Each structure stands twice: as structure tokens, then as C-alpha cells.
Amino acid sequence: MADNQFINNKPVNNQFNHKNYIIRTMTADDVSLAVNWAGKEGWNPGLNDASTFYHADPSGFFVGELDDQIIAVGSAVIYDDQFAFCGLYIVAPEYRGKGYGLALTKHRLAHCGDRNIGIDGVLENVKIYQRIGYVPFYENRRYQFTASAKLFNPIYIKPITNDDLQPIFVYDRQCFPAPRNNFLTHWITQPQAKSLFYTADGKIKGYVVRRRCLEGYKIGPLFADNAEVAQQLLNAVQVDIEGETVLLDVPEINQEAVKIAEQEKMCVVFATARMYQKGLPNIDNNKIFGITTFELG
């Protein structure tokens, strides 16, 4: 690359320099920068992803700085003593393949300690992830579709209020390897989001969150007891955005979820490998019809 290239209005130094490369914890502003980079990479982040991600674990986001210039970002969110998830990993294009990203990855793995660590890795890099201890288990497929006004039963589906959060946390734990109450509070109540739950016989049978993105919307999570409940929630969460582009990240391990996506004639536009360091977590995968995010699990 030419020596006159710039990142964040600073000249690029293309020489690998361990001595001047520092890895540190992000500030809240740094997380905004990382999400902005994600937008430039075409990841189409949510408008509130920076603030909601940060609430998952403020100590779990890192930058690599070379001569006081941020050239790499990545997260290693610790949920509890047993589980962590790594993501939001981007190296500035001019510094890729020079060892800076690997150094950041090793730092994040060390930060997670002895926990089971999950990632959603791009398919072409699966072998690279395997070399640092990750094992692939299934694909998460990103489906795209156009929202339409569909029928649903309003008797069973209601907006999630603050009074509903505690039972939502309990339900979520069936589908996620660790408690994440603080994150979910901010995720569910974020601006320009729609959060619904399905209840029958006094019990929660599923819930869904839709958030506004740079382009269109993303749905996630979509957790439900069965395909019928999932379909009702999916119908309800898109009824007011007819004609908009929507993304839903579906785990292929749940064939009922894949079936819904295919019946709705959604198109696969991207896929990742869901990988773990210490085996597949003991959760109810049959209730996961859409994951929360590629970045946080």
C-alpha cells in the first residue's frame, strides 16, 4: 500500500511494530467507532448497537493502537463464570495480515480465561479459527425478506414492558448459555425497537425484538416454544413496517426455523459458522428461531 494512505485522517504506517502496538479496553466512544467500522464493512449495524452492546460488558471491548492510532477492534464479552462470546472483530484494511489482529485475538482469548467461548466466524476463515481452538457446530444463516402486513392473534401477543422483563430473562436463559439481564434490558427497550412476547395460560411462550439498522431492520432474538408461536411473533413484529427490508439470522440446527424462512421465501445473503472452544452449550436450540446478533451471540 502507498505510504500516503490515511485512517481517521491520520497517515498510515505499514511497518509492523510490536513495540508501539498497544491493546487496551475500549471507552464507550471507542465502541461507537467500532460499530461505525462495522457499517463500513457492510455489516449493517443497528442504530443503537454501540450503546446496547456496551451494556453487555463494558470491560469486554478492546482496541489495538499503533502510535496512538486505532487500527483494530474486537470484543470479548464475559457473561458469567462459564461463558463468553467474541465478535466485532475488524482490522483496518491497510494493517491486515501483519499480525496485529492475531495479537488482539490472543488478548481477547486470555481475557476470557477458562470459559467456553463462542464466535460466529465467517465461513472462509473457519480453518483459521480452528487453529486457535474453536470447533464448528452449525451455520447461522442470514435471511433477507421484505416485510408485509400479516395476520397474527393479538390476544396472545403483547408489547414487552418493564414489568415483563424478569419473566423474559427467565425465558431467555433457556436459549442462551448465560444470564444477560443488563444487556437485555437495554436491548429490549432501545429506541426505534419493537419488542413483543407471546403469552398463553399465564406463561411466556416466546419473545422477539426488532431494531432499526442503517438499512432496514434486523430481527433478533426470535425465541419461541414452537414453530407456530415463532410464526405468530414474526408476523406481529413486521406488520407496521410493510415494504421494508428485514434481516433474520437463523440457526440451521433448528430445522423448524429454516422451514419458516423457506416457506416465507426469504433469501440467504450471508452465513457464519457458530463455533465454541469447549463444546456446544446445553441450551434449547429448538426454541431458537433467530439469534440475537452475530457480534454478541
UniProtKB/TrEMBL annotation:
Matching SUPFAM superfamilies: Acyl-CoA N-acyltransferases (Nat) (SSF55729)
Keywords noted in UniProt: Transferase
Keyword Transferase set for record: yes
InterPro entries, sorted: Acyl/Acetyltrans_Enzymes (IPR052729), Acyl_CoA_acyltransferase (IPR016181), GNAT_dom (IPR000182), YitH/HolE_GNAT (IPR041496)
Domain N-acetyltransferase: 21-161, 155-297
A single MF term (Gene Ontology): acyltransferase activity, transferring groups other than amino-acyl groups
PROSITE patterns: GNAT
Gene3D superfamilies: 3.40.630.30, 3.40.630.90
Transmembrane stretches, start-end: none
Highest taxon in the source lineage: Bacteria
UniProt cross-references to Pfam families, sorted A to Z: Acetyltransf_1, Acetyltransf_18
CDD domains in alphabetical order: NAT_SF (cd04301)
Key word Transferase present: yes
PANTHER family given in the database record: SLL0310 PROTEIN (PTHR47237:SF1)
Protein name: Hypothetical acetyltransferase
Organism field: Photobacterium profundum 3TCK
